[in-house]
């Protein structure tokens, strides 16, 4: 039988696939709007498609197991030595490597209420104890999280911005937190959505890598870089931490199409700028539209927004599905009255707002 911690887990529930909804309600898949998985609505950059095309003839070969070219590109872009970089099959893979390398039965892992669902999975899968700290105003209560650290704590997961709430913390809060974390604790700062935070405003975890040897900063190519299907994430850490992660990493965990696409994506500044602009505009559009509907929402720095329906969100979610709009219920995150909506193209956001108005009027 599974470990007790595993028995208590619920499987991760992804956004409902378009094909599934189309079949269920007899809808044309092309008519369905999916704003459920915080994906980049722009579609892949032409530069990325070309890079993938160029990599196709090598399909019979194993990928570069150390991801040298991608690490080189990351190093050039962000200024880190290769020895600090760990690549993953999505940042979920990186989170799992961290759990497998540093957690075990008897170890406590601290994270916030309403935090990303993968933190309890990677904790409990290795028999460690999850310590969930109540959130404050939907966001991480960093002082309370620091206070929850015991001699048994080995890892703390914090996300900035957090998913599914979109909440964030500032430099001063983070620095005060790091100052109160003992050195035996590794802090995993998950910056999956950091590209959407306005420059200058953002706490950039990379600025702190030299200062805090117990800090691991995770990032992904799935969101602003638009590569969710290919699964590429990475973390920057002290070289000794990277060395440990490399020991538990599966060989060839990042495939060659993903490696090639990531190198191209990192070089494509204009795609990134366009993604960010689209998100900025779409966020404003959704905020305004939700205000017009008289709905509350949690201010977000991500590419999604959590809407408060003031009542069980389940029936509204179902109503939206019938209208061909897929969003994400977050009852599993102890947010039964909210729905999380990813920022889409202008027309997609409009479809969502109209469908929501229709459902609420029923
Ligand atoms: N961290 C957070 C906070 C996320 O929301 C996500 C994506 N849902 C991830 C990590 C993982 O993303 P990926 O595995 O696609 O890199």
TrEMBL record:
Transmembrane segments: none annotated. Residues 32-356 form the Aminotransferase class I/classII large domain. Its cofactor is pyridoxal 5'-phosphate. GO terms for molecular function: histidinol-phosphate transaminase activity. It catalyses: L-histidinol phosphate + 2-oxoglutarate = 3-(imidazol-4-yl)-2-oxopropyl phosphate + L-glutamate. The modification N6-(pyridoxal phosphate)lysine is found at residue 223. The keyword Cytoplasm does not apply. Pathway: Amino-acid biosynthesis; L-histidine biosynthesis; L-histidine from 5-phospho-alpha-D-ribose 1-diphosphate: step 7/9. It is an enzyme of class 2 (transferase). CDD domains: AAT_like. Keywords: Amino-acid biosynthesis, Aminotransferase, Histidine biosynthesis, Pyridoxal phosphate, Transferase. Its EC number is 2.6.1.9. Pfam families: Aminotran_1_2. The keyword Oxidoreductase does not apply. PANTHER family: HISTIDINOL-PHOSPHATE AMINOTRANSFERASE (PTHR43643:SF3), HISTIDINOL-PHOSPHATE AMINOTRANSFERASE 2 (PTHR43643). Homodimer. NCBIfam families: hisC. HAMAP family: HisC_aminotrans_2 (MF_01023). Belongs to the class-II pyridoxal-phosphate-dependent aminotransferase family. Histidinol-phosphate aminotransferase subfamily. This is Histidinol-phosphate aminotransferase. It comes from Halopseudomonas formosensis.
